[in-house]
What does this fold into?
Amino acid sequence: MQTLKGTIIYGDEFEPIDGYITIDDGIIKKIEESTVATDVIIAPCFVNAHTHIGDSVIKDPPFLPLPELVQPPDGLKHRILRETSYSDLVSSMKASIEDMIQTGTCAFCDFREGGYAGVQALHDAIGNDPRIKTLIFGRPDDEGMNYLDSCDGTGLSSTNDLEPGYIQDILKQTREKKKKFALHAGERDQTDILSALELGPDFLIHLTTAGEKNIKDIADANIPVVVCPRSNYITRSGIPPIAKMLDAGILVAVGTDNVMLNSVNMFSEMEFLVKTNLYDDRQVFKLCTLNGAKILGMDKESGSIKIGKKARLMILTKKSYNMQGIQNPLSGLVRRARPDDIIRII
It folds into this structure.
């Protein structure tokens, strides 16, 4: 049993309170308020709701249009993945996983290319590490759908990249295995949004170009969305209309997307989002923690600090050169905190 003292970013509304957290066998057993001032912030760890960490084999690509970078089968990343040895792929993904852990992420969802071998490579990279939880969404290759038995579902690129009949077959086999189905939509333009919605996915990625009618349709269908603001900005896809999505009642979470474009550092994602798009500290932090946990089905155990949840916590100092002088712990955390402000991860 251990007790932590600090300013706790507490509950599903992330209210800063000074107090104590008691942890027993990895579970939060007690939370008590106190008037004792402290020099630390205790916050829930991040949930990175969309990654492609196979891209870890290339972290400095040229500035190219989005299709030339990532469109299957011959975008830059796909060519490089085909040329990369299995051991190098696993090693590079291990580095990104460790980077996530060290920068405060306790769970992530990865879209893995390469069929069964690609899924297995990520399993080998993760091993049995208890510090981070992973959902793996595979996709077919020349060997078909044999990846499904070893992962959590299917994660496709745009419906524009595959024949409709083939997508329906992939969806059918995924559902027969009782696995999740998700895909990218509205990243380059709106032409694949309706066809993606008609598939009834568990969630959609990007929706950068979504218009008001698209947003209404997504809300009416009760389909969550994962946005990747830094990635969309660097590929010149634009900034997703997150505020409009939230106003429509859509459950929205955040991911860092391709490692070749951006680090897996969720602090950078938060700062970019709160200063360019969604000027609401609490909402931004929720998108990067609890909402991701909800979309991935992990919110019973992570995403916020509550009694009964797992202690997936990051402890940050208020006294670093960067954080000294903050008045609001949540605002300081969202707008300016960095990984080097972390003094402990539980």
